[in-house]
Amino acid sequence: MSTTLDQDAIDSIFAEAKGEKRQEEVTGSGPSTAPYNFTRAGQISAQEMKTITSVSDFFAMNLKHTIGGWLRTQFNVKLVSREQLSYQEFLDRLPDPNYICSIRLEPLGALGLIEFDLALVAPIVDLLMGGVGDSAKVRDLTDIEEEILASVIQLIIRELNTAWLSIGLRFEFDHRESAGSGARMMSLAEKTLCVSFEVTMAEERGALNLCIPSVVLNQILRRLHKERDRPRRQSHENQVRLRNLIGKTTVGTVLQFTPMKLQARQLIELEPGKILRFPLSRYATSELCVGGLPIAKAHPVRSQEHRGAQIESILNERLTPKA
């Protein structure tokens, strides 16, 4: 038998339904909902940002010693910020003129950017040419200066690989980008991770910025989750095996004089058999450098039929093994 509802019956049913819905909202018995903001998808959590901060601090410490040892001067690197920005926001922060180079992010096949402050180029070039690291007006680079800066970028990439190894990300230098080509590398709305460092040397101060696109950022987040959930404890046997393997590695080592100045005339007059007198006392100590870093003051000595270095004092306690 069919039932026909008049308008009053229909209104009554809707009124009852509305009343039940209001009752659920008051008692909280119904399902709770909240609006979702899709623009926050892929945001880094506080724990993940803490891990990125730790990796970046490790990179800054290594870069300080590596380039400082290479230039034989104080080269301070400090992490100042790590933010998620759109690519447009990252480009808007770059100075003009600037030096940006593309880097390949393997094994993901993506591209990122490194920006190095041109204010730091003049003191670096001056130090490598025998000066004291004088600064100069910021300008675009000559061909020689660009070759020197490319060597600095290679050192930066080497330390990036060391620091980010635990996450499985590998950096490879691609080439320098012009302002136009750099702006076209990614979509301007692309979300990026921007890690900024402050570099101080001599009397000059500048910035070093690393920009990683979101496609790599998402991969990093997944790896961070895996690293966080992976057991950290190693067996005693594994620790002994790792220590033995590290003990068999070889590192570049050199015993060298401290910096000195010679007259250009002395170098011009060099010929086979001629003795070049150094402005050093016979009791002056040399520097024992390992991997390009000075670690001790030492005297050259003979050990049976070999040359050796007799350690006088340790320069950097952190670089020497603990007893």
UniProtKB/TrEMBL annotation:
Main location: other
Example GO biological process: positive chemotaxis
Localization (cell): Bacterial flagellum basal body; Cell membrane
Keywords attached to this entry: Bacterial flagellum, Cell membrane, Cell projection, Chemotaxis, Cilium, Flagellar rotation, Flagellum, Membrane
Domain Flagellar motor switch protein FliN-like C-terminal: 248-315
Top-level taxon in the UniProt lineage: Bacteria
Gene Ontology molecular function terms on file: cytoskeletal motor activity
Membrane-topology descriptor: Peripheral membrane protein
InterPro entries, alphabetized: CheC-like_sf, Flag_FliM, FliN-like_C, SpoA-like_sf
GO-annotated cellular components: bacterial-type flagellum basal body; plasma membrane
Function description: FliM is one of three proteins (FliG, FliN, FliM) that forms the rotor-mounted switch complex (C ring), located at the base of the basal body. This complex interacts with the CheY and CheZ chemotaxis proteins, in addition to contacting components of the motor that determine the direction of flagellar rotation.
Family: Belongs to the FliM family.
Protein name: Flagellar motor switch protein FliM
Source species of the chain: Granulicella aggregans
